[in-house]
Amino acid sequence: MELVFRDDSYAQSCEAEVTSADEQGIRLSRTVFYPMGGGQPGDIGVLRLTDGTEISIVDTRKGDHHEDVLHIPAEGTTLPSIGAEVTAQIDWERRHRLMRMHSCLHLLCAVVTGDVTGGQVNDGKGRLDFNLPDTQLDKEHITTELNRLIDEDHPVAPRWIEEADLEKQPELVRTMSVKPPVGSGKVRLLEIDGVDLQPCGGTHVQRTGEIGRVRVGKIENKGRQNRRINILFDA
Ligand SMILES: [Zn+2]
Known about the structure:
Blueprint: E1 2-3, H1 4-7, E2 13-22, E3 25-28, E4 30-31, E5 45-49, E6 54-62, E7 69-73, E8 85-90, H2 92-111, E9 115-122, E10 125-131, H3 139-151, E11 156-162, H4 163-167, E12 186-192, E13 196-199, E14 214-221, E15 227-233
Parallel strand pairs: 1-4
Antiparallel strand pairs: 2-3, 2-8, 5-6, 5-8, 6-7, 9-10, 10-15, 11-12, 12-13, 14-15
This protein binds zinc ion (ZN).
């Protein structure tokens, strides 16, 4: 399966062929649908058949392995036949909001020091948990720093690193809860020029300026050494 979103996070649709379809989900020869992972939700959208019929996709999940993508149809959908040609089209407005928030969480990693113990991107909001025992976190300061990095409009781009080279630079791995996938020889890094560099398989905007205004919401205490910082769009 060709994962179009991995090299081009701005691809909104692609032509593809159905390679399998059952109650588990629909597999395609190639896809723009991002499967849930790394704290980013799976895409929603439609598969359009050549006769104009639309199959509504309500979620996207990983299948049997890392590069296997399952398009989950709405309940009661008539499944397409194997070999059927489809146009796969994501809900772009939602995905773009997820890309903006996901990219912003990378900035948060740069603003707040401390190991990341968890995180989640949602539509319109996001959060990261940090292992910060005794640090006083200043909401206003974090908000100002995030918006400064956004205003500076840094370029954002993926690049690949050999697994062996990553092992030599363990400091690149900020997220203790989400280990980068290993075993394929290469690991995808996400680089925000001069700001942040870490393994990430998600989808991001091309420049930080595209994120737009944000602000820190609640800062919660989630148990021992675990501070949760919530981020919202401030439109
Ligand atoms: Zn990322």
